[in-house]
Design a protein that fits this description.
Number of helices: 3
CATH architecture of one domain: 2-Layer Sandwich
Structural class: alpha+beta
Helix content: 10-25%
Number of strands: 11
Distance between the termini: 38 Å
Strand content: 35-45%
CATH class of one domain: Alpha Beta
Radius of gyration: 16 Å
Largest sheet: 6 strands, antiparallel
Length: 140
């Protein structure tokens, strides 16, 4: 599914938004790539074009699809449109639109989506892992 970035945002702040949504983020020279596990042998794969700059322009393309990882190989199947993908695209655009990101001394300030605590953007993913862990399913 293809979408567009709703407003201009710094690449560093975009990485913080994606991390707060549970994605594992990797920055490449001309795009931001993120992955999020969906289920057994499936993951959400997100690509946002940055055009090599530090600022992602408004209406930059977003590519979001589900990868099906049946066997470890170079190529894999993917699902282009699904209800999960549509819901995730809406959540992503909402998170970018409603985010209140400020810059202080070269470090972006982020607000935790769970407890509303403000902190440096680079600390948000660690804060979420330590203070708001996902409950592990019980077996047995």
């Amino acid at each position: 599914m293809f979408g567009a970035v709703p407003k201009r945002i710094l690449v560093a702040n975009l990485e913080v938004v994606l991390a707060s949504l549970g994605y594992r983020v990797a920055r490449e020279p001309f795009q931001v790539v993120a992955f999020k596990p969906v289920g057994q042998k499936q993951r959400l794969h997100l690509k946002i074009e940055t055009f090599g700059g530090s600022m992602v322009p408004k209406d930059a393309p977003i590519d979001l699809h589900i990868d099906i990882l049946s066997q470890p190989m170079k190529y894999h199947k993917s699902i282009a449109f699904d209800a999960k993908i549509a819901g995730e695209m809406e959540a992503l655009e909402e998170a970018i639109n409603t985010s209140e990101w400020r810059v202080r001394g070269g470090d972006s300030i982020a607000t935790c989506p769970v407890c509303s605590k403000e902190m440096g953007g680079r600390f948000l993913s660690g804060h979420i892992k330590v203070n708001h862990p996902k409950p592990k399913p019980r077996r047995g």
